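Notes from hallway chat w/ T.B., transcribed later so I don't forget. T.B. wanted the structure written out for a chain they're using in a teaching module, and asked if we could keep both sequence and structure tokens in one place. Agreed to drop them here.
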Amino acid sequence: MLGSWQFWAGLAAAFAALTAVLAKLGVAGIDANLATLLRTAVVLVSLALLLLGTGQLDWGQLKGLPRASLVALVLSGLATGASWLCYFRALELGPVSRVAPIDKLSVVLVAIAGALLLGEELTIRAWLGVALIGLGGVLVAL
């Protein structure tokens, strides 16, 4: 299973969807550009921790950020890092023409999560588009 590109591409899609939902929560109360910067910084910190844990890096911490936004952006950043790691692992094991469509199934997961968790409403036309994205991703990946 860990040697399967489909497994890693599927995890990449799940983590990418989580990233978007948590980022939406994280922008509450702060500028969207700042939220994007903070989320990106969390990815950097996560990778820095990996390097620090292996003795390859030394760094300091960020302080003074709104707690709710910080928590959501930290979780969003962690999901982003997990998605990227899974995506590159899937690319290592499988063809990009089949890995990327599975990764893009995150669009389907984000639509569902946005509706269920954030109360966003999609039209029937939008749901049809989401379903077609899902179908297209599966067809390309098979």
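Follow-up for T.B.: The longest helix spans residues 67-93. Might be a good example for the class.
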